[in-house]
Amino acid sequence: MPISTDERLAILQDIQREWLALTRAVRDLSDDDLEQGHLANGWTIKVTMGHVTAWERKLIDEIRHGERGEVFHWPHMDVFNPEQAALDASRPAAEIREDFWRTHDELIQLLETTPILSRELVASDTYTHYPDHTAQVMEWRKQTGRG
């Protein structure tokens, strides 16, 4: 059964509410802050932004596979997360920042039109995922006097 317009809007609003909180936490940070800001989980802010982007990218891939009637195989997070963190650690902060914004915009555009949208599909990679990382960045900001 297709998703109702009201449910699509509610999902998009939930995503945007938590995205706004996350972006407020990182928006005014310098590239140096992103590179040097170590969070409680051991990652830098830059790596955390790359992590969020990577899971949004996986969600985009899953939706596109689903639209074509193909099965998408999710990586195991205990393998994927450290591998992605290692890749992001070597990338410039500016590049990660650009991917962070671009990928989210692409995801939202897709969610506005895809026929396979559901809460079960998107929650764990978006609005229930962002708050954990928002809290980590806000704690770092508090501890460093940037918050």
Question: In a few lines, what is going on in this structure?
Answer:
The protein is mostly helical and 147 residues long.
- Estimated radius of gyration: 16 Å
Mean pLDDT reading: 96
Q: Give the amount of beta strand, in percent.
A: under 5%
The biggest sheet, with number of strands, parallel, antiparallel or mixed sense and barrel status, is: none
Element order, helices and strands? HHHHHHH
Helix content: 55-70%
- Principal-axes geometry comes out as globular
Count of DSSP helices?
7
First CA to last CA: what distance?
45 Å
Low-confidence blocks of residues? none
- The class by helix and strand makeup works out as mainly alpha
Number of strands: 0
3D architecture notes:
It is globular and about 50 Å long. It has 147 residues and is mainly alpha-helical. It has helices spanning 5-26, 31-36, 45-67, 77-89, 93-111, 119-122, 130-144. Helix 3 crosses helix 4 and helix 3 runs parallel beside helix 5. The chain is built from 7 helices and no strands. It starts with a helix and ends with a helix.
Q: What's the SSE blueprint?
A:
Blueprint: H1 5-26, H2 31-36, H3 45-67, H4 77-89, H5 93-111, H6 119-122, H7 130-144
Helix pairs in contact: 1-7, 3-4, 3-5
Key terms for this structure?
147 residues; 7 helices; mainly alpha; single chain
